[in-house]
Amino acid sequence: MFILPVIVGITACSKGKDGPQGPQGPQGAQGPQGPQGPIGAANVTYSAWFRPTNYTTAMIFGIRNFTHDEAAPAITQEILDKGVVITFGKLLGYNASIWPANQVATLPITITYIQGATQEDTWSARASVGTLQIRFTNSANIYTSIATAHEFRYVIIPGGQGLGSMDPRLIMIREQITNGQAVDYRTLCDLINIPE
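The structure corresponding to this sequence follows.
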């Protein structure tokens, strides 16, 4: 009996060229929703500090009013209807014993002091579309001009349907302003990351 050897040939193969790309398949199912981001101040805006250099004067009911109109394009009719505008003042034109240089407060601000007699200086703000008006009065009408060292800035907290996703502390601040209460400036800065 003969055994025939079987020879197996091995040949080297090389990969051929890729063919054209096929059509894209259907889109897969949507993945799970990611975690909720931090709630808070995405829509809150604020101005830089501004220093009025000129005031207009007018006598109203026997009291001299000094006013300055600052352009504020972020104050829209919608903000006036649904949001709040908070104005802060640094009253740098006063002696530090009356108003310390690092003190910031919500307008209106009333300062009572004695200069011959007891007097009151009142600083207030009024927002209208595109404008923030700063107003000053003195109860004894002793001023014919006022210092231009005072600084002001405004913060806008919107209103409307987005309140559900707003930080509850911002909602509380909105309510304080709506009720005529003062807001602590540095607390608000920390909350919405306003550079002081």
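The CA atoms of residues 69 and 133 lie 4 Å apart.
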